[in-house]
Design a protein that fits this description.
Elements (H helix, E strand, L loop, with lengths): L2 H8 L3 H10 L6 E2 L5 E2 L4 H13 L4 H12 L5 H42 L20 H13 L11
Helix pairs in contact: 4-5
């Protein structure tokens, strides 16, 4: 299958396909007599999986590590499983955070719906529903805590060489 057809079927651009191939996310394509890339249709399954990893927030370095392990064959299955298990935990944490946010939104919407039912005029302020007893969520702080937990306590950084 030519790159244009692969792009059409996968939803990626030809540029992205070439980029993924160049960095190692996709295996090097064979070439036909005109030296054009010629992909096997089975690559679509791998591209779909990569899309799911990307959609769930897996960093590209982890996707590259997974691709490298995959190319290593069955002997790397335990390492691939561990990598996916770590990612699954990150996704579960992200889903839990989103569920908490959804509860806040539901409460906010219910507050506005209650105001409409009570007959408040549209020009009256309804800031009462802008506050919440739920602690604010700061994703960057959460990510830093997660990284610190993985790598141990953060200490002073070594000085940069100039």
């Amino acid at each position: 299958m030519k790159i244009g057809e692969l792009a059409r079927q996968s939803g990626l651009t030809a540029h992205t396909i070439r980029y993924y191939e160049r960095i190692g996310l996709l295996p090097r394509a064979g070439r036909d007599r005109q030296r054009q890339r010629d992909y096997d249709a089975s690559i679509l399954t791998w591209i779909e999986f990569l899309g799911r990893l990307k959609a769930t927030g897996m960093p590209i370095r982890d996707m590259l590590r997974y691709a490298e392990l995959r190319a290593g064959g069955p002997a790397t299955e335990p390492d691939r499983r561990r990598l996916l298990e770590r990612h699954r935990e990150a996704v579960r944490s992200q889903v839990a955070t989103l569920q908490d946010c959804l509860l806040v939104l539901d409460g906010k919407i219910a507050g506005y719906a209650g105001n409409e039912i009570a007959g408040y005029a549209g020009n009256e302020r309804t800031d009462d529903h802008d506050s919440s007893d739920i602690e604010p969520i700061h994703p960057r702080e959460h990510d830093a805590d997660r990284r610190r937990h993985r790598s141990g306590p953060a200490g002073p950084r070594p000085a940069r060489a100039r």
